[in-house]
């Protein structure tokens, strides 16, 4: 599988598109040599601090294991930690265009020049560049997700035990970065079951079992150990208007929520815009509470009791009105896809200083670790403070975002869908790719709040649809010429 994954690197066209991406990434790192750091970044980086100051391994309950552990390993290398993170993440993100081109090349050899265009368009994707410059697991997860998609395509093309094993390990990798990697595990298992007859016709069952046993056990163990403590609270925030107010289950809690639920029901299409307020009302001590019972739950923070209550209410609401759940999910997806990204604004010096200062003052270890020492941190802060208004990085990134990452709910997406339709008509065996994308969108926003960055792994599909449409049309024209000849 690895040989086929890195096959595009033998193409001079691919390198022609990749070299400008490498140059831009190097320039971007020179412009801002310390990664962006947000409150959510703290939930990953605290593992580094605890491990290197106390000698203990502690993973935040909200997070999967691999990314904070990789950050901890990087801390042991010489050099400023922030620069190491940027170099590693930006280089790793190059695997996204590589995996995309490799997946396409499993099905067609037409127009090799498009390999370079794909490398440039996907490598210069503004969202992927931005999250590669951020201490969050989003960019590494996007890389793992696309490696999994390539492994899935490779297995569908060559249903062998070795391909099945590689696919299951890549699903394990995706789950190691984020809890929603569970979808990759389920898709991998479904693919093995779908191609089971073909596998058994080529290989004895015992050999298949031996090949798949270890990755299956690894996936099962990681699945069992990945306990997302927020899941009940997130899900209930998404389906709160469907609360069954007149049933006996937790009736006291429902009584306090009744005014909020009835108000939300009056305008369901706009409820996704209120989810953030509902989440705060249910969990944050500083936000207004619906009543004393919820106040008592919030007094312990995001405790198991809070999530147990939310899980029960969410489960009852979803089972009583499944169509209502799908309708609310559609409203949420529509709202998310209608939003502009606006990532360029996060490179404003005042924004960066605010995020850095807030975290680094509370955790002096972060500044020393990421910048190398306190003096280097002070120099970085002084350099940013001396800049006013939009920087060159901001202006270039804004232009890059305009053409590389159009709004999802737009005519451009329709053109991309047309391209995928033509491609799947020519290659029906690849219909799983847009189907997997649709399944990921629904599975993600069924529970999670409407945050645009959750679509990062699917960003390559926008320009990818245009490119695949061109590939398919060139194949069609070539076939017509051959028939005439």
What can be said about this structure in brief?
This protein is mostly helical and 485 residues long. The chain is built from 26 helices and no strands.
Please render the helix and strand layout as text:
Elements: H1 2-5, H2 12-31, H3 39-54, H4 66-75, H5 81-92, H6 95-105, H7 113-123, H8 126-132, H9 138-157, H10 161-177, H11 182-194, H12 196-202, H13 205-225, H14 231-239, H15 251-265, H16 275-283, H17 292-298, H18 304-320, H19 322-337, H20 349-362, H21 364-371, H22 374-385, H23 392-404, H24 411-426, H25 432-447, H26 460-484
Helix pairs in contact: 2-5, 2-7, 3-4, 6-7, 6-9, 7-26, 8-9, 9-10, 10-11, 10-13, 14-16, 14-18, 19-25, 20-21, 21-22, 24-26
Secondary-structure-based class equals mainly alpha
Our Rg estimate from Cα atoms comes to 24 Å
Residue fraction in strands? under 5%
Quick check: average pLDDT?
85
Distance between the termini: 36 Å
Number of helical elements: 26
Order of helices and strands: HHHHHHHHHHHHHHHHHHHHHHHHHH
Main sheet overview: none
Overall 3D shape? globular
Number of strand elements = 0
Low-confidence stretches: none
- Percent range for helical residues? over 70%
Task: Based on the model shown, name its key terms.
single chain; 485 residues; mainly alpha; 0% strand
Explain how this protein is built.
It is a single chain. The protein has 485 residues and is mainly alpha-helical. The protein has a domain at 231-337. The protein is built from 26 helices and no strands. The two termini are 36 Å apart. The model has no long low-confidence stretch (mean pLDDT 85).
